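>> received
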Amino acid sequence: MTALTVHRHSEQLAVCRLPPGAPIPSWAAAPGRLRAAVRSRNELSVVCAIAEVPTEVRHEGPFTAFEVAGPIDLGLTGVLAALLAPLAAAGVSVLTLSTFDTDWILVPSLQHAAATRALQRAGHDVDAPTGAEDRAEESG
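>> returned
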């Protein structure tokens, strides 16, 4: 696998656990870089801005998102392996999500600097937040 370009986003995210039959809550749909909802037989997991999560909702975070520059061909293999191996070696815990166009890696925000260093040591290009939306996320 060749070196990948990864964009680090500044928005602080949460991973929430709701009952399996719960509707996707309106607070989870607030605008932002990444929002996701995954339902299984046992739970509804929601990824959203940590600032939007009501205090009574079970959640973990904050997390920092790393987005693989895409779109990535769905037939391409080894993308996550190339990124997760150096993170595991550095002791960085992760949660991964995939969309049609790309892969996302969430790391505990306290570990985002270690994650950045590990990815760079492995030869990947990591861009720090620079866009207007990321600056707004950092200030808000």
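>> Helices lie at 79-89, 112-121, 132-139.
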